[in-house]
Every structure is written in C-alpha cells, then in structure tokens.
C-alpha cells in the first residue's frame, strides 16, 4: 500500500521569506504599498475573517494601535504582495474576540496554507517576547530585518529565532505499536512518545534514550519518516519509527501516566469513522499533530 502524506499541518508556507528585501528602506516601502496586508494575532491566537480565512488588514490600519513588541513583523512576499503580522493589545478594535482562534484547538479548521502562515507568525512573536535581552551580555536587544532577527544594543550580537528539535517516535513490535499518555491529558487520549534532542545526540540516539527512559524498552532500527514545525512555541518534530526488543513496559511515572501496546486492529478502529467513540480503544491525537500523521502512516505499512 502506498502512502501519500497529506500536507503536514503547519507546513507548506507559501510566503517567500524575501531575505534580501529586509532593509529599513524596503520595509518602509512595503508598509506603504497599497496591496500590503497584515494578519492579526492576539495572545498567540490568530484573527479569522470572512470565509474562515485569515483576516487581513492594510498596515496603515495599525497606526496608533497598541501593538506588542516588535510591532509588525515582515513575513515576506506573497507574489508581489508584502505580508506582515501584528500582535494586538486591543483585538476588538479589528474583530470580535471570538474570531481569534487558538491554533492548537481550532487549527484543524483552517485552510492549510493559512495554518502554516499563522503558525510561523505565532512562533516568531513567541520568540521575540522571550528574547528581549541579549543572551551574551544581558543588554536589551531590538528587532532587526523586519523581525527576522534581534540585535543587541550593547555588544551588537545578532540573535536568530530558535527551533528546538524533538524526536517523536512510533515504537513497534509484532504488528503492535506502543503509545503513551502524559499526566493531565484528556481521559483516553494516547499518542506517540516524544522528547527533546539533547546536545551531542543524533535524533536516532534521542529516540533510543527517550523510549528507554519513559517505558524501559530497548529499541533498534531507528529510522526517520517525516517532520513537522510545531509552533508551541517553536519545535521541529522529527517523526521516527523504531523496533522494540521486547514488550515489557516499565513505566516512568514522572514522565507518563500510562503506556500500552495496541494492535493494528485497535489502531484501525480508532481511525474508523463507523466505530462509535465509546467503542474506540483510545482517543487519537488531533489531526493537526504529526502523531496523528504517523499513526496513519503506520497503518499503511
Ligand atoms: Zn549583548
């Protein structure tokens, strides 16, 4: 059976980053251009307008508005159209508050390209918010190149947005897959095990270590499948599949509330719309997650 991955949620951004068009002169021109548009965020949520698409307003509509630092971020060019993003302090000036959608809860309803654009904007604003001071000297830093980086006022070090790699893995054995649930997750919800890649590790080594730490299972044959940008706040989820040496689970209760092996038939039932929810063996991860995509991929193997 062949597998055609659906475009990965939060990936597929179509806006040209426009790296060489980020001087103050370029940005001034773009902000005044009649076809320029700004998407709107509020507390990490994104403003939705007509037809369920991202609400877009001209940058001049933001003049006099209270915006969170660093003001409008230049996302790049959509053809000839400059696209900015702004984080609002008073969102109701532009849209009813209920039009601002939490990407984690409501992202699956968005157009895939809008979801990618909104996720990137959210990650950038989250990064600016938590990097106002220089990690080298502690001095204040300012946004530069339309929000593509920050520059320290004192030691002039450049700081660039960070992406944190995470290994997320499907552990398999005898046509079964191992899933777990973290503390405080909704009842019945199960997903792939995952953990941050540590300094000095490959993603394969991180996969081996995480599975051993969380459930006491040794694994081999670690292989990469696909990845996903995850803007909460800025992870690169690297999907891995590996084979378990045995099925004995020793649960690390500091990390997980539960972990279980599920058969192929059980996973199929979870994705089968004709199976009533209360008859499903577990609640599947949301469609916007790479874990959901990995389970679907596993079913085709
Ligand atoms: Zn500095």
Q: Using the 3D structure, state the CATH architecture of the largest domain.
A: Alpha-Beta Complex
Instruction: Examine the coordinates and then state which fold CATH places here, giving the name of the CATH topology of the largest domain.
Output: Nucleoside Triphosphate Pyrophosphohydrolase
Number of helices: 6
Structural class: alpha+beta
Number of strands: 15
Strand content: 25-35%
CATH homologous superfamily annotation of the largest domain: Nucleoside Triphosphate Pyrophosphohydrolase
What count of structural domains? 3
Low-confidence stretches: none
CATH class of the largest domain: Alpha Beta
What ions, cofactors and ligands are bound? zinc ion
Please compute the radius of gyration using only Cα atoms: 22 Å
Distance between the termini: 7 Å
In this structure, how is the largest beta sheet organized?
6 strands, mixed
> How do the helices and strands follow one another from N- to C-terminus?
HEEEEEEHHEEEEEEHEEEHH
Q: What is the average per-residue confidence, as pLDDT, rounded to a whole number?
A: 95
Helix percentage: 10-25%
Which term fits the overall shape? Answer: globular
Task: Describe the structure in your own words.
The protein is α+β, with helices and mostly antiparallel strands. It has 3 domains: 24-130, Nucleoside Triphosphate Pyrophosphohydrolase, CATH 3.90.79; 136-162, no CATH class; 164-299, Alpha-Beta Complex (Nucleoside Triphosphate Pyrophosphohydrolase). It has 6 helices and 15 strands. The protein has helices spanning 24-32, 103-106, 112-130, 203-215, 264-271, 290-299; strands at 37-42, 45-47, 56-57, 73-78, 81-87, 100-101, 141-144, 149-152, 158-159, 164-173, 176-181, 193-196, 219-230, 235-244, 258-263. The strands form 3 sheets. Strands 1, 2, 3, 4, 5 and 6 form a 6-stranded mixed β-sheet that branches. Strands 10, 11, 12, 13, 14 and 15 form a 6-stranded mixed β-sheet that branches. The protein is globular and about 60 Å long. The termini are close together. The mean pLDDT is 95. Zinc ion binds next to loops.
């Amino acid at each position: 059976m062949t597998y055609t991955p659906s475009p990965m949620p939060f990936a597929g951004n179509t806006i040209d980053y426009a790296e060489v068009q980020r001087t103050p002169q370029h940005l001034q021109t773009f902000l005044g251009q009649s076809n320029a548009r700004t998407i709107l965020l509020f507390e990490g949520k994104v403003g939705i307008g007509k037809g369920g698409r991202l609400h877009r307003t001209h940058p001049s509509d933001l003049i006099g508005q209270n915006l969170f630092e660093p003001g409008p971020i230049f996302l790049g060019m959509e053809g000839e159209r400059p696209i900015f993003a702004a984080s609002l302090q008073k969102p109701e000036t532009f849209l009813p508050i209920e039009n601002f959608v939490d990407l984690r809860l409501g992202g699956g309803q968005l157009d895939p390209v809008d979801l990618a654009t909104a996720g990137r904007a959210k990650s950038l604003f989250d990064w600016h918010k938590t990097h106002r001071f220089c990690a080298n000297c502690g001095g204040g830093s300012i946004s530069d190149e339309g929000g593509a980086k920050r520059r320290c006022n004192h030691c002039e070090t450049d700081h660039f947005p960070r992406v944190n790699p995470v290994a997320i893995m499907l552990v398999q054995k005898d046509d079964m897959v191992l899933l777990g649930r973290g503390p405080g997750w909704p009842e019945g919800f199960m997903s792939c095990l995952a953990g941050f890649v540590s300094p000095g590790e490959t993603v394969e080594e991180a996969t081996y270590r995480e599975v051993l730490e969380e459930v006491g299972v040794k694994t081999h044959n670690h292989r990469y499948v696909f990845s996903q940008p995850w803007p909460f706040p800025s992870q690169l989820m690297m999907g891995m599949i590996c084979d378990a040496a045995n099925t004995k689970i020793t649960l690390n209760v500091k990390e997980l509330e539960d972990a279980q092996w599920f058969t192929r038939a059980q996973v199929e039932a979870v994705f089968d719309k004709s199976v009533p929810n209360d008859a499903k063996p577990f609640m599947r991860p949301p469609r916007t997650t790479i874990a959901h995509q990995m389970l679907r991929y596993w079913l085709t193997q």
